Amino acid sequence: MALDRWIALVLLGIFIVYGYTAWFTMDGGLAPFMRRNPIWPSTFPKVLSILGIAASIIILFGLEKSEEKIGEIDHRRLGDYFLGQAVLLLGLMVVYALCLRPLGFLFSSSAFLIIGSFILGERKWHIMFSVALIATASVWYLVQEVLGIFLRPLPMFMGV
Amino acid sequence: MLEGILIGLQTALSLQNLLVVIGGCLIGTFIGMLPGLGPMSIIAIMIPVAITMGDPSAALILLAGVYYGAIFGGSTSSILLNAPGVAGTVASSFDGYPMARQGKAGKALTIAAIASFAGGTIGAILLMIFAPMLSSVALLFHSAEYFALMVVGLSAIAAFAGPGQVTKALLMTVLGLIMATVGEGALFNLPRFTAGIMDLQSGFGFITLAMAMFALPEAIFLVLKPKNLGDDGGEIKDLRITRAEARAIAPVIGRQSIQGFFIGVLPGAGATIASFLGYAVERNIAPKHEQGEFGKGSIKGLAAPETANNAACTGSFVPLLTLGIPGSGTTAILLGALIALNVAPGPRLMVDEPQIFWAVIMSMFIGNLVLLILNLPLIPYIAKLLAIPRKFLIPFILFFTLMGAYIGQNNATELLMLVGFGICGIALKFANYPLPPLLIGFILGGMMEDNFSRSMQLYGGVSFILERPMTFGLLVIAACLIIVPVLRTRLAK
């Protein structure tokens, strides 16, 4: 089965769960006065669930005629591309998300930029460090000091 | 009117106000380039500065300059990095980014600057002529018509997805609409589909989703298949537009200035709907051989949303200045600033304080001119962003993607959602699902449900569809937009 049909199958599952919630469980706790309204919080989701299920079924059973097109990257031959680097970068983003608050903006962001360049094959450490530090400090200054949006600069244990 | 124009010119051309408009445009352009900071946040940040200026005309001129600058800045990050910071510039990335990847970044930015200038200037002329008249027409649009207008917009986007792609686009639109229902809706004050997760109470963040669907998959594709941006031929520095290209985009700019302006006048519609509808309309009316170029770097596909969103920004001043009704979040913030400055916008503004009314309109002309003069020489330098080696550029794109999501919500969970949605976006891109309809559905979903619910409450059910001819007409158009291309594809086979 082609990837677009697999995705349609997954989406069909999501729409069925969504539709089940909208049609059968959502209105259970609705206050009596709201039940007299012509519109309930579940009305619009009910319509959407039907549309979603119908569209997924059309794709799943190939009812709309279309030719299978391979985009700029053929997902069936992922091994031919730089898959390792892409996975490592996505992992690095997750680590950054987990470290941003405890380690502070300046440290985590500089580390993200340096390790990101390293993963992509850069080895000129002096450039990597100076670019990362200047960029991180400038963004922090712009966001926190100029725009007034709080970004914890230093690690949590330092109390800043 | 002539007297008003002269008063406005006198105020807007004073040295102080000229410096104010230049400063506003520059601040707006540079901050607008940062994903996550749209015109609304920038104007909100600038309000204290505007209020301390004391002079209402100068304050409004500053905020209007910031508004235009931010829209242009947002287009720059859409075109160069495929990272639209605001909903109004999403459509600009459909063709702007492919142009940048083909080595035509300079040309794309020039077209964006010229289209923005033309859209804003023609919009300002229309504002002068039609402002008093249009305010009464805008009041004829009720929630039912807004709902129908949004259905038309979404159907148009799905319909123009290309042969064999209509259902996929429709599926993505519905998915976007479904995602918009997660969280606490404005109308019901009840959390929906949150599964008890506190972070979902306020719903998914627009910036997070925009970054996850556009910037992140694009950056990961560049990692998977290395390719230096701007290396595919052409010169980044080449800003020139040929005579044939100018001839091709001139009618697009003319049409979209007018259409964008009138959509902007409708409260609630604004730059986002104007840019998407502008794109959809131009794609639909383009000759058959040109339709295939849309989404692959068509100059018409870039000029249309760029013109329409700027014209709509100007149009959105009509209900604000003439009725005191803000048509969008941005103009709502401007209204707050006006009230803080002791100015009461409404039908009396033109009579009681003509110097403010006309100075704002005149400053729109000056602001647009300043943006053009400032940005055209800067384009080669802005476009050089793409000449940065990918080993540095990709981590930076990912970093700004993360920053955009974090600044918008100030919540680290948002970053994890960004990565999760980004992986889904990559899978959808692999399977050739069009991603823009998902984001458009998400952006319009909340407004669409609000207007649908209000109409249902007012009419006690769905009878509003038949009782309001304009609503009925718009819904018929929406149905035709979906059915006709599907039938045409079937008949062609």
Fold topology:
The complex is a heterodimer of chains A (160) and B (493).
Chain A: H1 3-25, H2 32-35, H3 43-60, H4 83-103, H5 105-119, H6 125-146
Helix pairs in contact in A: 1-3, 4-5, 5-6
Chain B: H1 2-12, H2 15-32, H3 39-53, H4 56-81, H5 90-101, H6 105-138, H7 143-159, H8 166-180, E1 183-184, E2 191-192, H9 206-224, H10 243-265, H11 270-285, H12 288-291, H13 299-315, H14 317-323, H15 329-340, H16 349-352, H17 354-383, H18 390-409, H19 413-430, H20 436-459, H21 464-467, H22 469-492
Helix pairs in contact in B: 1-17, 2-4, 2-17, 3-4, 3-15, 4-5, 4-6, 4-13, 4-15, 4-17, 5-6, 5-13, 6-10, 6-13, 6-14, 6-17, 7-8, 7-11, 7-20, 7-22, 8-20, 9-18, 9-19, 9-20, 10-11, 10-13, 11-13
Descriptive tags:
heterodimer, A: 160 residues, mainly alpha, flat, B: mainly alpha, 22 helices, 1% strand, globular
Count of strand segments of chain B:
2
Integer average pLDDT of chain A: 88
Read across the widest sheet of chain B, the strand sequence of neighbours is 1-2
Mean pLDDT across all amino acids of chain B: 81
Task: Give the biggest sheet of chain B.
Answer: 2 strands, antiparallel
Oligomer: heterodimer
- What is the overall shape of chain B? globular
State the end-to-end CA separation of chain B. Answer: 59 Å
The class by helix and strand makeup of chain A works out as mainly alpha
- The total of helices of chain B stands at 22
Low-confidence stretches of chain B: 230-234
Query: What is the SS-derived class of chain B?
Result: mainly alpha
Q: Which residue ranges of chain A are poorly predicted, with pLDDT under 50 across at least 5 consecutive positions?
A: none
Question: How many helices of chain A does DSSP assign?
Answer: 6
> In what range is the share of β-strand residues of chain A?
under 5%
Instruction: Work out the radius of gyration of chain A.
Output: 25 Å
- The total beta strand count of chain A reads 0
